[in-house]
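We modelled the chain as a single entity of 259 amino acids. Its sequence is:
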Amino acid sequence: MHPEFLHFGDTTIYSYGVLIALGAAMGFWYVSRTAKKELGVEKEKIQTLAIYIIVMAFVGGKVLFYLENPGYYFNPPSNMLKGFRTGFVFYGSLLFVIPTVIWYFRKNKLPVLPMLDIIAITGTIIHAFGRMGCFMAGCCYGIPSDGPLAITFTHEASKAPLHVPLHPTQLYSVTLILTIMVILFMFKRYQRFEGQLFFIYIMLYALGRGVIEIFRGDEARGYIIDDVLSHSQFISLILISIVLYFYVKFLKKAEKAKS
């Protein structure tokens, strides 16, 4: 909608970057405050963790983005530098960040599962801002729509097709993520085992993302089965299967411990 936040001279500050920065700041505030209050984790350790997360989120997001169209980005490799600051895949960031976070927790002798629960809510904060950034930039746009929710991009710098009513898939994602955030805060009060919030976050997002993919129009992200199963839907199915297994396993263990 408004890809350029501020423009002066030859310098342009993009809305996407501003919103990502705001999300990161809010996420850091929440995780540092909550980890200190609930687990006694010092802010310095969270600062170091934040650096790891930013780096791995960038690397993972770019790697999966390149793998969606390897024929272009690796032939020649110089194509990877085109639009280097844009073009990220959330699942790539997630798949790189989670192992890094677990490694960091274990290395610093921090409680892994309780920290992952905090990271789950932190993730919704950052991700919601990120998807609003997508809306502003026009990326991750939807298929054409004549429904009442359709939006039309007109700014020449938008990445979405211009002057065509589209499904606002970015806003669908924001709604999904904020809904998950509310659910996590609700479950937090009645949590039955450590790690439950993290598992719920992954499963609900993967399920919702799989549905939203139906309305996505940026087909460059690629398909496992053309027009049937996208890369993101495939990853969603894998994540749901794995996380559901562990959710049931940990739940049974918690119930057994109480009996």
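As a brief sanity check on the tokenised model: Residues 74 and 80 are 7 Å apart (CA to CA). The chain has a mean pLDDT of 89.
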